[in-house]
Amino acid sequence: LSQSSKPRWPPLPKTRLVSALRILAVRYQWTGPLTQAQLAGVHGPSYRCLYPQPPAAAIPNCAESGVLGAVVGVIGSLQALQAIQCVLRDYAVPETTLSFFDARTHQLSSFRLTKRTDCLVCSKPKAAIHLDSPVHVPVQVAAVTAAGTEPLWLDVRSPDEWQTGHIPHALNWPVQKLDNNQWPELPKSQPIRVYCALGFRSKRAAELLKAAGFTTVDTLELGLRQWTGPLVTDSQNQQS
Question: C-alpha 180: how far from its chain's center?
Fold first, then answer.
């Protein structure tokens, strides 16, 4: 194109772009939600408009649930594309939209997200917003308690996680070993209480141990977040 025929775009004030627009995305396994919201002027709906109640169970992080790198790339590209579209539209975001990308089917579904009149966030002034944390169920101890003997704590986290601190006198046996049919040298009748960081790996480990013939297995349901006792390192464990 000649200099005279090139499209002339208005100057883009960066401060206005940052303050006026927010494009958010989350990556989880095969899927990724993506949303854009207008921040300047009238505020749009919040996530509580979509999910009024928080989940009762613990929410896995990326290390627990896994994230595909290709999904991250696709969602990131969609975020960049939405930002460019908003810039070329002079930052106009007429409504808050929510899109879901499913890498298993290569489908992108979008719908309008509207504010709820009874939303705990949108229906109140900022100073009056108070969000309670969900109440979780206590540790699953039925199997070991019924056995009447002291359980062995089995830590199924990685060795690096183990080094940061663990339950005293526990045994570190990463869940990957169980996946590869490598079992701890313990009597099958030994009561075992399994734990990890958040409770997801320990649940899987307990299922594998039971399938391998260990008769008395339970879990620390929410992982170390639920543990109220002390944590030790290997050196402290040896001294005790």
Answer: 26
What is the predicted pLDDT for the residue at 147? Answer: 45
State pLDDT tens for residues 4-44. Answer: 444 444 444 444 444 445 556 565 667 777 776 654 455 67
Nearest residue to 211 (alpha-carbon basis) of 187, 233, 178: 178
How far is it, in rounded angstroms, from Cα 236 to Cα 222? Answer: 25
**Amino acid sitting at position 192:** I
Which H helix or E strand runs over 35? strand 31-38
CA-wise closest residue to 64 among 230, 237, 223, 226:
223
- Identify the residue whose tokens are 């705990």: 120
Which pTM was predicted? 0.47
d(CA 39, CA 96): 10
- CA 18/CA 87 separation, integer angstroms: 11
Query: Where on the phi/psi map is residue 106: left (φ > 0), alpha (ψ -120 to 50), or beta?
Result: left
pLDDT above 70 covers what percent of the chain?
65
One DSSP character per residue, 178-227 reads: HHTT---S--TTS-EEEE-SSSHHHHHHHHHHHHTT--SEEE-TTGGGG-
Both tokens of residue 78? 């969609």
What are the tens digits of pLDDT across the range 50-77? Answer: 777 766 555 666 666 677 788 888 888 8
CA proximity to 109, closest of 93, 123, 98, 94? 98
Give the separation between CA 107 and CA 122, rounded to whole angstroms. 30
